Amino acid sequence: MLDQVHMTSLFENATEGIILTNGKGNIVMTNPAIERMFGYNSEELISKPIEILIPDKFRPHHHQLREGFYNKPSNRSMGHGRDLHGRKKDGSELPVEVSLSHYKRDDELFVIAFIVDITQRKEIEISMLKQKAELEKITDKIRQLNADLEIKVEERTLILREALQKLEQSQQELSEALDKERQLNEIKSRFVSMASHEFRTPLTTVLSSASLLSKYTATEEQEKRDKHIQRIKNSVNNLNDILEDFLSLGKLNEGRVDKKLEEVNVKDLLTETVDEMKTQLKKDQSFIVNCNENCYAFTDKKLLRNILINLVSNAIKFSEEGKNIAIDAKTSNNKVVMAVSDEGIGIGKDDQEHLFTSFFRAANAVNIQGTGLGLHIVKRYIDLLGGEVKLESELNKGTTITFSIPIK
Q1: How many domains does the chain contain in total?
Q2: In 57-81, which positions are buried (b, 16+ CB within 10 angstroms) versus exposed (e)?
Q3: Residue ranges with strand state E in 146-268
Q4: Are residues 111 and 124 located together in one domain of the fold?
Q5: Checking DSSP bridges between strand 27-30 and strand 84-87, what pairing results, if any?
Q6: How far is the C-alpha of 249 from the C-alpha of 359, rounded, in Å?
Q7: How many CB atoms lie within 10 A of CB 164?
Q8: Is the pTM above the cut of 0.70?
Q9: Are 304 and 231 in a shared domain?
Q10: Which domain holds residue 364?
Q11: CATH number at residue 45
Q12: Where is 18: in which H helix or E strand?
């Protein structure tokens, strides 16, 4: 139920418009962002052909483009150098960027379109063109003044040079704003691609196991039923972890993570967290915990617990069966210093400097479930607590992540 709430919230509160169409090109589902963007309510769009949102001048040829895509579907990221426009309910047009993804269900093709209104970006581009035209006019004026007013050339040149500097500064600011907007759209596109990929695998597992469960009806087939039930549980847990990463990153980026400082018994917190995570251990894995008796910190208990859960989960995930995970905690120089060590696959030197950035996956971990957000979120949480973090790792020997936070 919690996963359904998360997924519904992710769909309904997305700032990008999302449209789902069936194999006939008819609209099956839209999110609120689409309704705001195009001025329709959902009842006016459901079961209508997607061409309802295409400008009149492009509509006669759009069905041919759509049919061509349906015959040879492929994912298409945002920003392919194409000027695309949508048609609002009132007939007006708006510039858009469109990213396409697809999947099949019961042999029917469904296409997901992610739509971004780029009206603001186009306005910035127009403004830049106006600035450029203004600069060209001023340059021509300088040439004319140099020819006609040689006596006052120095004075006039100085005045116009200052004007040019201001205009160039304004143009640079506009260019930087456009670059930031493009970078934001790139991050959003990477998010959409990552979410689509990471959701597909566990959802496919849930669907296949649920279908197989109905076939095992005999009493002696309980073991097979239990196997598929466990697969479903594991897939749902994976989905929940992915959603938690995305939601945590969203809160951090929006500045909605507040610290609630209190005295925390680090040993008790560590014991509770380890006991809770024992169910995640693989076969013959175990925890080795060392912590000072008088280990206290005046900090945010929830953030500290999330940091530990993330690091310990990674240690379990990237270690093989029978490998131990060590967790150490101590006080030193008015700080609590904690380290989580594993004997897992390790991380290559070339990858280590990028591990705390968002959506980064090490070269030897791309086939292991994950979003590439875990360590980025850990680093952001530690920064909020006024702490520091470092990583030591060697391929095929293991990884140790050490972090410290102030006692007060």
Answers
A1: 3
A2: eeeeebeeebeebeeebeebbbeee
A3: 261-265
A4: no
A5: unpaired
A6: 11
A7: 16
A8: no
A9: no
A10: 261-406
A11: 3.30.450.20
A12: strand 17-21
